[in-house]
Amino acid sequence: MSARLLNIGRDLQSRLKEFFENPLDSKATPLELLQAALEDLERRVQPAGRGRKTFPYDRVVVHITQHGADQAAVHAVFRDFGSRLRDRLAELNCEAPAEIDASVVLDDTAGEGAPTTIRVECIGAVDAPAAPAATVTRPSIRLTVVKGQCAEPEYLLDEPIIAIGRTAAPTDALGQVRINHVAFVETRDGINETVGRAHARLQFDPGSGSYVLYNESSSNPTSIIRGGRAIRVAPRDPRGVRVVTGDQLQLGRAVLRVAFE
150, 97 in Cβ contact below 8 A? Predict the structure, then answer.
């Protein structure tokens, strides 16, 4: 009987291993990607003795490769990824760092029909290389409205991801709500209607210590005007374009001026 139970246990373990190692469907939704990342991280919880459990990482980077992925939808779903992770760890009564820096890197250039893959990178405080404070300190960015009408004439922000679009909380076809930090108002003035509801985002890159502009709209042009020269930001390009003080962000016909505090 014990040998039979042992074989059943091994078979179950094998099937679980096969389930977790299989790639996701090529059309996996952003919510499915989020759940897969959380399940992967849950399996990284470590026993710490005397019934204690710990999550020894204070930085998590989720690398997603998916053909034709919707950049805006994925980043909207993963926007509160860090808080969701902390909630999941709390449910497991697991000790975790007070702050977990969680981010997502999306590659949508995979070939058509290729399976969707997720690679979760966990970095602990001991593993992280020392860096000068200026490299990792996130500056405040001031965005001043030059052309167009926004809820505010000027924004001073220091969020790691700054969403820009038309209306404060647009909803997509799937019912998912996006919160725009810089919101152009819903009006027909020849300018505002050229701004997409999920037009662009500024995302802080800790490696370079700078913000990078990404074009999340496939139908409305996005450019950076620098020194009289226009730098086009290609739609859904995972590389984006770094912004500097004095740049002007052209979103359709609307314009924002950039300055760092």
Answer: no
- Strand order from edge to edge, sheet including 101-107: 101-107, 59-65, 117-123
Confidence of residue 23 (pLDDT cuts 50, 70, 90): low
Task: Specify whether 149 is located in the same domain as 220.
Answer: yes
pLDDT in tens, 34-62: 998 999 899 888 888 878 889 988 889 99
Query: Given the structure tokens 């979760």, which residue do they identify?
Result: 120
Cβ density class 205-214: b for 16+ within 10 Å, e for less: eeeebbbbbb
Show which of 123, 142, 172 is a domain's final residue.
123
- Both 104 and 177 in one domain: the answer is no
- Cβ neighbours of residue 211 closer than 8 Å, sequence gap 6 or more: 141, 162, 202, 203, 204, 205, 242, 243
Q: Does the pLDDT of residue 13 top 50, yes or no?
A: no
CA neighbours closer than 13 Å in the CB half-sphere of residue 222: 25
pTM, whole model, 2 decimals?
0.50
Cα separation, 212 vs 237, whole angstroms: 11
State the residue range of the domain holding 234: 133-260
Phi then psi dihedrals of residue 101, to 5 deg: -85, 105
Q: Partners of 162 in the beta sheet? A: 202
Q: Are residues 91 and 141 in the same domain?
A: no
Give the SS3 label for residue 86: helix
> 69 or 152: which carries more pLDDT confidence?
152
